[in-house]
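Problem 12. The chain below contains 142 residues. Write out its predicted structure in token notation.
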Amino acid sequence: MNWFASVGGLVYNSPRQLTDRFDDNSNYRTGIQPWQKEGDNGFPRVVYESTLNSLEATDRWLENGSFVRLKEFSVGYNIPQSILKHISINQCRISISGQNLLTFTKYTGLDPEFSGSLYERGRDFAAYPNAKTFTIGLSMSF
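Solution.
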């Protein structure tokens, strides 16, 4: 197993900035409940065409980017010689591995381990998340 963690980083969630801005008649994320009274739930009061809800960069879209990820897990098995000698195989190993299998984070974006811009580090521009992959292997010698 190979675990990887990053602790204490802040991430500017640009996709959330676009979907939670409330300054026009856009489609918003499902389940958004803007506040009815001061301090309800962290979303500002919805005011159409207000600069309060515009695309200005504010700390409203800064999120904790800490995460722990199971980067790789591999397991293999060598088939015993007692079984192989009957089928004329000297050695046989079966293996399976997976990458990016589990991620524990409170970050609301696609992936806290995103590939950001060289000039704007710490800003998530909705880059494709790290792929979850599985590999099966068979190694034999005759």
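Discussion. Strands lie at 2-6, 10-13, 62-64, 67-78, 91-105, 123-124, 133-141. Students who got a different answer should revisit the alignment rule from Section 12.3.
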